[in-house]
Specification:
- There is one protein chain.
- This protein has one domain: HUPs (Rossmann fold, 3-Layer(aba) Sandwich), CATH 3.40.50.620.
- The strands form 2 sheets. Strands 1-2-3 form a 3-stranded parallel β-sheet, with helices on both faces. It has a two-stranded parallel sheet with strand order 4-5.
- It starts with a strand and ends with a helix.
- The longest helix has 17 residues.
- About 40% of the residues lie in helices and about 20% in strands.
- The chain binds coenzyme A.
- Coenzyme A binds next to strand 1, helix 1, helix 4 and helix 5.
- The site of coenzyme A has 24 residues, from strand 1, helix 1, helix 4 and helix 5.
Length: about 160
């Protein structure tokens, strides 16, 4: 049987435990997950594209079923180029729904053969986002347990290294 591969796209500035949980759960359904880090997503990232990809690689270095790479341009074009027809997105709350619905429908209009699969985010990560984690860290609050250790270290380095 052909390998079932899915793409999990996002900005990942940086990867949080919420993202990690979605990747791990996706691996129960798919043989491989490509974590696709977006070059341009209209945000002004704290970490460069290379740094964001690197952090994902480090976190999943022991798992050969997780691949991290960058992409630019249209997500559906990238999916075509990788020969993958499934996109995974995590849903945290009702507030995510409208944006996700809009993206999924636009992607379907652009490429009807590509499907978006939504996973409910674990309740433990409902309230976190990359932005809120960076804000809390910037203001001296603890982000322990909310991001992988590697990521926590990189955030501290970026925000507080002289
Ligand atoms: N746990 C914790 N946080 C989560 C989460 C989870 N399970 N799922 C999402 N988030 C957070 C992210 O940390 C992020 O927080 P931030 O806004 O503070 O940075 C936010 O939710 C949403 O980010 P993300 O999942 O990374 O998506 P995005 O909106 O940044 O990325 C792209 C969207 C890159 C997938 C989209 O812009 C895209 O496809 N771009 C390519 C161009 C294209 O094809 N455009 C047309 C698409 S219709």
């Amino acid at each position: 049987m052909a390998e079932r591969i899915a793409i999990y796209p996002g900005t990942f500035d940086p990867l949080t435990n919420g993202h990690v949980s979605i990747v791990r759960r996706s691996l129960d359904i798919f043989d491989k997950v490509i974590v696709a880090v977006a070059m341009h997503s209209g945000k002004n990232p704290l970490f460069s594209l290379e740094e964001r990809v690197d952090m994902v690689r480090e976190v999943f270095q022991k798992n050969t079923r997780v691949i991290a790479e960058e992409f630019s341009g249209l997500l559906v074009e990238y999916a075509h180029s990788r020969g993958v027809n499934t996109i995974i997105r995590g849903l945290r709350a009702v507030s995510d729904f409208e944006y996700e619905f809009q993206m999924a429908l636009m992607n379907r209009k652009l490429a009807p053969n590509i499907h978006t699969v939504f996973m409910m985010t674990d309740y433990k990560w409902l309230y976190i986002s990359s932005t809120i984690i960076k804000d809390v860290a910037r203001l001296g609050g603890s982000i322990d347990g909310l991001v992988p250790e590697v990521v926590a270290g990189r955030i501290r380095e970026r925000l507080f290294a002289a």
